[in-house]
User: Fold Formate hydrogenlyase subunit 4 from Methylacidiphilum fumariolicum.
Amino acid sequence: MIKNLVFQCFDAFLLLAVSPLVIGIIRKTKARFLLKQGPSLLQPYYDLMKLFRKEVTLPDSASWLFKATPYVVFTFSWLAASLVPTFSANLLFSRTADLIAIVALLGTARFFLSLAALDAGTSFGGLGSSRESLIASLAEPAMIMIIFTIALVAKSTDLSAISTFMISGQAGLRVSLWLALASLVLVAIAENGRIPVDNPATHLELTMIHEAMILEYSGKYLALLEAASQLKIVLYLSLVAAVFFPFGMSTMVGGISSFFIGLFTYIAKIGLGAIMLGFFEILVAKMRLFKIPNFLGAAFMLALLATVLLFVSRSL
Assistant:
């Protein structure tokens, strides 16, 4: 029990440590492919430290909810990320929760952030909150269908059991899993506000979604929200790696060598995922807001098609 608790604590702080680096890799990749120098890989760490040192300014109309939301969002995002198996398929938290719990935690964090954006009493907060609610209402059904597909294959929603099942090779090569992967990638892009759904590097009122909700935050509150956003990206990258590419994960029975192999494999997969995301973002342009339902509708249809294919294959 103590050993499992130590590994879980290590995993939780590993996620905190690598999440700013993932953002740095994405930015550096985009700059390099555009033939620019780009910021340092460590720049996100410097930005967070700078924000923690800055003074906090609050809107006059803000209530206690505005102050509490950054802590709630960061805690729930960190907990949700810790539920996903990373370097091991047998982490303590992974055996106590499942995919549905992750969706619930992220949904609760989004709910509090939307309320806080409205609590500030600004037009930008209401704009960002309404747009975020639109995306959530379209992304969550697709995510539920993805969970349904994976659960039908692995016969469980427990991420530890799913990862162990995928590592064993019993799933084989299934078209339904590839469709679920494609759907999950589209949902992850939308949920994290990445291009083409949103551009986190701009502050144009006509296009911003997530940035509009946190526009009134500053200092340590903004640092916590930025850290939560970084953890969310790592969460989805870890989810893709744990469910669809679980090779190299430790099962805690191979000794210390198995632990280090799992750790280095996980870091390599997350780094590769960040590079691929950065490369993808320079290939596409920001889409209009009214085209986002079509984007997430495609994600839902891919997940639905994956589920239908599973039922058809079992009936034959």
